[in-house]
Amino acid sequence: MRLCKKKQTVRAWLENFNIPVDDHFFLKWNEALFKIITTIQKYDGKDFVTERAMDMMWSTIFQSLYIDYDTRQEFYPQFEANISKLLKVFDGLDKAF
């Protein structure tokens, strides 16, 4: 295995992928993914969460992030609305359990 001793900053990494440091979509997407991942990890494998409930959670995530878009309308406002609804569902889970 070859070790790379080159250091790279986050700014340089973003620039390599032509992502502006202040890209609002990129920031919102990653904030949402963090919340989704931590919620999934919190409930996955718990005795009180059924397999069907986890399947429904995954379906809701998929629907919100990838399906619920009208291609005739602007993307970003739809994305923000979908993320907002999804995160409210996840906040509701925390209150329910």
Q: What is the number of strand segments?
A: 0
The DSSP helix count reads 4
What is the number of domains?
1
Mean pLDDT: 86
- Outline the low-pLDDT stretches: none
Rounded Rg: 17 Å
**Pairing-aware structural class of the strands and helices?**
mainly alpha
Helix percent band: 55-70%
Shape: extended
- Sheet with the most strands, sense and barrel status: none
Distance between the termini: 45 Å
| β-sheet strand percentage | under 5%
By oligomeric state, this entry counts as single chain
Order of helices and strands: HHHH
Describe this structure in words.
With 97 residues, this protein is mostly helical. The chain has four helices and no strands. The longest helix is centred in the C-terminal third of the chain and has 22 residues, at 75-96. The chain is extended and about 45 Å long.
Q: Can you give me a brief rundown of this structure?
A:
This protein has 97 residues and is mainly alpha-helical. It has one domain (22-96). Helices cover 68% and strands 0% of the residues.
Please name the defining characteristics of this protein.
97 residues; 4 helices; mainly alpha
How would the blueprint of this fold be written?
Blueprint: H1 10-16, H2 24-43, H3 51-67, H4 75-96
